[in-house]
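[recover] target loaded
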């Protein structure tokens, strides 16, 4: 018996030791755990749930509530009756509460605070989740900040006749870092969704193994599906949403993509709910797609995007409509300019032409005063023609219709004509005391007039020697007429704004490592200069250096420098200005460069030709020609002038008032004696273009010898020359007809006496 008692005592002692050891280990684990561990005590209650605001007020009035014996409860924003708990007081906590939350001692938590006091105002105590699953909430740290914890626990309850007491063993794992990452991901996701919504960009994924289509929220919005449950999310259902006219194309594109494995983009329309296939305002989308394949090369998944481009499509439609309107407006402008050019040049043709005939008529005795009147009329007509040409040129340049020639010409011959034109401008400038310096000569007022007599234009240009520049090859390749136009504009501008002193031009060759040889032309004067506030826009159309004063007192349209700049740029060069109004007579210097392009082969006697085909500086003695000419023009005055011109050249002339009459005369028995036809382009009944085509058809059908046809036009617009040559014309000349130029043109096709 004593032995059994001793054994029992021994077993009890060992059991107590084991239990004591187990309890110590448990206490050690509890104390040293990295998570928040605590034992909470409280009482379960049945009462209405307070609002967040009420719970916040309860937390603020903690001491008062405790004294009054009131209970702060778990809260939500409802007012229903629920099972809650009284304030959960800390019965025991581990060191982690101090380490993680930063409290200086356990006593503060155990004696003065309860669990609800530490909860974030936006979080609520959810015992059900804490005890059955998990529950996330924030706790206030000692420094006032909050950290996130994931809570779980177990509970023990004991019930009395008045209430139910509970003890909770709670575990709180710090998930602040994870929540920061989660919050950042959620924020990025929201921003992405907002961006996709703003961009109207949806995403989709097609599981080819299950024929299951998954769409993003934005995709549903794009396809206007408020209730996605009615959509069976198959590929065929997607095809049914596509506009019938685009459906086969989209399907074929996708199938070809699966075969080629190349990503693709396709633009198509949608057939939205409530809309019809003939809707005038369809929704346009752009689909992008790529696919994934298994180890056997079979497609298993396609992923892509769909973007609403309806606004872009509408913008393209609007832009196309605007471009069409702009093109129509440009065509109307060109037609207007062509018409105005024709209407103005036609009477000018008579004014300048008949004045010229009177001045060169050696048989007529014209009083000196009357001759002066005629010269004034002729010069005014030429000035008006220059203004018209400037307006047409700037219009062609701005419309991108100006084309440069690229041919061999003589620089010396071109400069000779430039100098002669400048002398003519100087001779007409009254009260000037200007010295005109050129590369080879110096001229003063006393010899301007003698070198630029109106009645001996060709004599003066032909009698002088070409201007040869040392170190520069005379035979160049380029557009001599446009180069001459730039120099004429700059010299005229210099003379206009200079009353005394010097006007000078020069040419030199510059060698630049990056661009090669460049010809530099400079035109300088000692005139009034250009004010600083005008220098920025001096090359703009309709701008003059001295504003309204310059326009009123000095004349001009303000287009000369604008045209000069645009022509230089068209010739791949640059133009610059150096000027000052201080000191007096400092004047201005315009410099421009163009590529130096010497001709490889210098043809004999290859003088530059002007825009109408006449040689620059042609012979003074207009050669007599032999030939019968058919003149076709609907204007009697033009016919009369042309007839006078050609008969003075020694030719016979017949006239026709339109293309229909011209064809009839061409087909008559006398037709074989016509040597050349001058055909006006614009005529009623049958215009010149149609008449030329019919004549060429007759020649081909009847095997006739080709007759030279020269087109005559008063339009002088871009494309006129090409249109005439394409119709079958051999050459082209513009009105007003110049006697010398017309003679040069006819001499190419007729024999001389």
């Amino acid at each position: 018996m004593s032995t059994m008692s001793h054994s029992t005592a021994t077993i009890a002692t060992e059991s107590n030791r084991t239990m004591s050891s187990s309890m110590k280990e448990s206490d050690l684990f509890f104390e040293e755990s990295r998570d928040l561990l605590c034992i909470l005590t409280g009482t379960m209650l049945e009462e209405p749930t307070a609002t967040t605001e009420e719970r916040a007020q309860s937390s603020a009035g903690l001491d008062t509530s405790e004294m009054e014996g009131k209970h702060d409860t778990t809260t939500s924003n409802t007012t229903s009756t629920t099972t809650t708990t009284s304030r959960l007081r800390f019965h025991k906590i581990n060191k982690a509460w101090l380490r993680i939350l930063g409290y200086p001692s356990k006593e503060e938590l155990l004696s003065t605070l309860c669990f609800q006091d530490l909860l974030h105002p936006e979080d609520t105590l959810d015992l059900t989740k804490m005890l059955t699953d998990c529950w996330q909430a924030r706790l206030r740290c000692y420094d006032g900040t909050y950290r996130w914890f994931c809570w779980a626990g177990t509970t023990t309850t004991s019930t009395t006749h008045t209430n139910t007491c509970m003890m909770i063993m709670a575990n709180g794992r710090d998930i602040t870092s994870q929540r920061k990452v989660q919050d950042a991901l959620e924020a990025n996701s929201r921003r992405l969704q907002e961006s996709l919504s703003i961009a109207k960009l949806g995403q989709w994924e097609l599981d080819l193994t299950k024929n299951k289509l998954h769409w993003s929220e934005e995709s549903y919005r794009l396809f206007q599906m408020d209730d996605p449950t009615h959509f069976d999310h198959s590929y065929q259902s997607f095809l049914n949403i596509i506009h019938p006219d685009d459906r086969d194309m989209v399907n074929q594109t996708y199938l070809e993509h699966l075969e080629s494995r190349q990503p693709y983009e396709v633009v198509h329309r949608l057939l939205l709910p409530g809309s019809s296939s003939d809707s005038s305002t369809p929704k346009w989308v752009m689909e992008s797609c790529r696919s994934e394949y298994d180890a056997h090369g079979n497609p298993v998944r396609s992923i892509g995007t769909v973007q609403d481009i309806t606004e872009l499509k509408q913008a393209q439609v609007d832009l196309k409509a605007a471009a069409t309107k702009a093109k129509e407006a440009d065509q109307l402008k060109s037609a207007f300019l062509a018409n105005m050019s024709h209407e103005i040049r036609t009477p000018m043709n008579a004014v300048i032409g008949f004045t010229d005939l009177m001045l060169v008529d050696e048989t007529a005795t014209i009083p000196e005063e009357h001759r002066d009147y005629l010269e004034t009329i002729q010069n005014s007509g030429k000035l008006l023609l220059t203004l018209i040409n400037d307006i047409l040129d700037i219009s062609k340049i701005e419309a991108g219709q100006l084309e440069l020639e690229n041919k061999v010409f003589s620089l010396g011959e071109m400069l000779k004509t430039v100098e002669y034109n400048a002398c003519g401008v100087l001779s007409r400038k009254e009260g000037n005391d200007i010295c005109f310096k050129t590369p080879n000569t110096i001229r003063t007022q006393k010899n301007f007039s003698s070198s630029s007599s109106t009645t001996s234009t060709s004599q003066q240009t032909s009698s002088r020697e070409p201007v040869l520049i040392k170190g520069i090859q005379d035979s160049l390749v380029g557009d001599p007429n446009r180069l001459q136009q730039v120099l004429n504009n700059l010299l005229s501008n210099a003379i206009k704004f200079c009353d005394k002193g010097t006007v000078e031009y020069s040419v030199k060759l510059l060698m630049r490592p990056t661009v090669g040889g460049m010809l530099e032309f400079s035109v300088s004067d000692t005139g009034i200069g250009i004010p600083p506030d005008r220098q920025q826009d001096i090359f703009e159309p309709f701008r003059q250096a001295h504003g309204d004063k310059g326009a009123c007192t000095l004349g001009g349209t303000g287009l000369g420098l604008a045209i000069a700049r645009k022509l230089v740029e068209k010739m791949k060069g640059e133009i610059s200005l150096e000027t000052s109004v201080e000191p007096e007579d400092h004047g201005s210097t315009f410099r421009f460069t163009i590529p130096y392009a010497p001709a490889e082969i210098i043809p004999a006697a290859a003088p530059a030709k002007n825009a109408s085909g006449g040689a620059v500086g042609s012979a003074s003695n207009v050669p007599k020609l032999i030939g019968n000419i058919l003149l076709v023009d609907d204007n009697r005055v033009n016919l009369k002038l042309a007839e006078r011109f050609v008969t003075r050249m020694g030719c016979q002339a017949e006239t026709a008032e339109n293309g229909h009459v011209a064809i009839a005369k061409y087909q008559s028995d006398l037709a074989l004696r016509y040597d050349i036809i001058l055909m006006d382009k614009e005529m009623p009944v049958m215009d010149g273009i149609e008449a030329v085509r019919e004549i060429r058809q007759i020649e081909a059908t009847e095997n006739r010898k080709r007759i030279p046809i020269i087109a005559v036009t008063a339009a002088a617009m871009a494309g006129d020359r090409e249109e005439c040559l394409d119709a079958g014309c051999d050459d082209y000349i513009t009105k007003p007809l110049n006697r010398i130029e017309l003679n040069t043109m006819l001499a190419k096709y007729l024999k001389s006496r």
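[recover] notes: Residues 310-360 form the longest helix (51 residues).
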